[in-house]
Amino acid sequence: MYNIGIDLGGTNIVSSVVNDKYEIISTAKVPTNSPRSADEIFDDIAMISQKAVREAGLTMDDIYSVGLGTPGTVNAEGEIEFANNLGFNHVPAAKMLEERLGVKKVFIENDANCAALGEAYAGVGDGAKDFIAVTLGTGVGSGVIVSGKIVNGVNNAGGECGHMVIVVDGEQCSCGRKGCWEAYASATALIRQTKKAMEDYPDSIMHKLAEEEGKVSGRTAFDAMRTGDIAGIKVVEDYIKYVACGVINLVNAFQPEIICIGGGICNEGETLLKPLRRYVEAERYSIHSKIQTKIVKAELGNDAGVIGAAILYMVKE
Amino acid sequence: MYNIGIDLGGTNIVSSVVNDKYEIISTAKVPTNSPRSADEIFDDIAMISQKAVREAGLTMDDIYSVGLGTPGTVNAEGEIEFANNLGFNHVPAAKMLEERLGVKKVFIENDANCAALGEAYAGVGDGAKDFIAVTLGTGVGSGVIVSGKIVNGVNNAGGECGHMVIVVDGEQCSCGRKGCWEAYASATALIRQTKKAMEDYPDSIMHKLAEEEGKVSGRTAFDAMRTGDIAGIKVVEDYIKYVACGVINLVNAFQPEIICIGGGICNEGETLLKPLRRYVEAERYSIHSKIQTKIVKAELGNDAGVIGAAILYMVKE
Fold first, then answer.
1. CA-to-CA distance for B193 and A115, rounded, in angstroms?
2. Which of A:273-292 have CB within 8 Å of B?
3. End-to-end alpha carbon distance in chain B
């Protein structure tokens, strides 16, 4: 059985044919070139999907279902209700794909949820039924799987754990609240924290590192820490504490089998995960339980989204 | 069909026979008299359960299942792993009830989860499949229902949303963390906040109100507010802001159909709920969704626990 998984991103659109072992067997790509009309974008999506099918040596008759992951909120009818960075407002995505590809089974889902589903079934989750994927990127994305199903809630807007406040009246978040986890644990937040420390520590090696890289990045403080730089150590310690606070909140609320951490910051690997696990072990509510949530690094990278989109039929049919 | 629901509390044990319309048709009670051995306590549980069955004009042959709600953590085998205030450590509750009552279908669950299940199916939830019950009492209890099932997680310790931090490095919580929602939104926290304001405002009417009641209670600040007392208004406004912070966190993570609020503080009714809803409407992530989470008052009171216990078979079989 073959399925098409599509990742509709702000920069690129990727369409892949995925087999029933969750393997990508062909992929085609096109730039999003946003802002464009939804019709133009969906014409391109159909074009690359047909191309991926041809490259896999298949025809559309071999395709069981099509799944698409998109930023923003999606309703139960497969309509993209609102996607800020695509300029989409009530776009009937499922209908538009069905018309263009002639496939009856079409599923639309938020992209973070697709990535979580991909990691849960095909990646580091290895089929875990209670699973959370957290992405530490520009924002803090999350997708939550409970009993094998995506937590969508009553309006398909569930699973936005990056927008849980961890500091009442804290830093302004892009969502309008103050003190969201995202405002402390995203790469954007880390960069803000790094810049603040550079102001406070004019002698820190971070100034030199940032000059060499041409900018302050999510790596600056971690690299400084590795040289023993006091300011770098402080930034990283505080940042990991904030990441841990949200992760422990998720452990206490969901007690999933696995929480997987992805996104750019995750390239730090055990430098991030080891102290993170120490915080979780010290603070989780379930101190007396024999079974505990595992904290691991995401393993599928960008493939998680298309694989998750391709297997949406498994949880939505 | 008849089921027995048992609420094993720190002070009293209640056993009720519940019919298939979720109605309690008989009830028997006994003091917990803790600390006692688990054997003695379970002998009493069996005794009152048999009494409730007799008073309903039934025999044990009419009973389809027995459900028990207990404080603490319960594992998948129906063992109470740890219940601090009962002094229980690895008590095989399901086996002990089965032996004493001769009923094969026995289900054990955390008491907050039973109360949530009761409200979701038989109370204010009216069968909602995505539902959260929050109890603002000595602590902040919560039970979470997703797709009609209790969120237990991998170790049956899930749903402890009172122990999600809302203030990093904030007030010490009894669970060991600092800044938990419970440490700001429980009745205990409200009393602490009231006492603090009384120190800061020696002329506040709260001093007189507390003297009349013989203590500072969860009502003191609310009653003072109603007289126009500045300190009382300030305490209540801050308290509701903290309650709202956690409720919005739950909305963003779960987007349930309903969040119901119970516990002593809930007697304030719309005085609490109206400003709470205003916060939620202003801050929820799902601003563009047509369907939104309803925030309502719990309606079953103490009956939620026994009814939820009696219908555990519906979600656990």
1. 43
2. 282-283, 285-292
3. 15
Residue B170: both structure tokens together: 């904030």
**Considering only CB atoms, which chain B residues are within 8 Å of A175?**
285
Q: Is A104 on the interface with B (CB under 8 A)?
A: no
pTM: 0.94
**How many of the other CB atoms lie within 10 Å of CB of B196?**
12
Q: How big is the CA angle at B267 (ends B312 and A166), to the nearest 5 degrees?
A: 75
Tell the residue number behind the tokens 């300030």, with chain if given.
B234
Torsion of CA A124, A125, A126, A129, to 10 degrees: 180
Q: How is residue B187 written in tokens? A: 């009745």
Above 90 in pLDDT, residue B204? yes
C-alpha A198/C-alpha A147 separation (Å) is 45
| A204 Cβ contact partners less than 8 Å away, ≥ 6 residues apart | A197, A198, A224, A229, A230, A231, A232
Is the pLDDT confidence value at B274 over 90?
yes
> Which residues are CB-neighbours of A70 under 8 A, at least 6 positions away?
A8, A80, A83, A86, A88, A93, A108, A109, A110, A111
Strands of B73-74's sheet in order across: B73-74, B80-83, B88-91
Rg from Cα positions in chain B: 20
Q: Count the Cβ atoms, other than its own, within 10 Å of residue A62.
A: 13
Would you say the ipTM is above 0.95? Answer: no
Q: Are the beta carbons of B236 and B270 closer than 8 angstroms? A: no
Cβ neighbours of B283 in A, within 8 Å: 176-177
Average pLDDT, chain B: 95
What are the residues whose beta carbons fall under 8 Å from the beta carbon of A162, sequence distance 6 or more?
A: A134, A139, A140, A141, A142, A180, A181, A182, A185, A186, A246
User: To probe the interface with B, which of A70, A161, A165, A238 has the most B CB atoms within 10 Å?
Assistant: A165
The label of the residue with tokens 């949200």 reads A246
User: Where are the alpha helices (H) located in chain A, listed in sequence order?
Assistant: 38-55, 93-101, 111-122, 182-185, 187-200, 206-213, 220-226, 230-254, 270-283, 303-310, 312-316
Cβ of B245 under 8 Å from any chain A Cβ? Answer: yes
Residue B150 tokens, joined:
């209790």
Where does A109-164 have alpha helices with state H?
A: 111-122
Determine the Cα–Cα distance for residues A257 and A244; give it in Å rounded to an integer. 17
Judge: B255–A147 Cβ closer than 8 Å, yes or no: no
Q: Are B265 and B136 in contact (CB under 8 A)?
A: yes
Tokens of B221: 């600040």
Q: Band the pLDDT of A317: cuts 50, 70, 90.
A: confident
Closest CB to B154: pick one of A163, A241, A256: A256
Q: Are B153 and B144 in contact (CB under 8 A)?
A: no
Which of B75, B154, B180 is the best substitution to test chain A (most A C-beta atoms within 10 A)?
B154
Residue ranges of alpha helices (H) inside chain B are 38-55, 93-101, 111-122, 182-185, 187-200, 206-213, 220-226, 230-254, 270-283, 303-310, 312-316
Distance between first and last Cα of chain A: 15
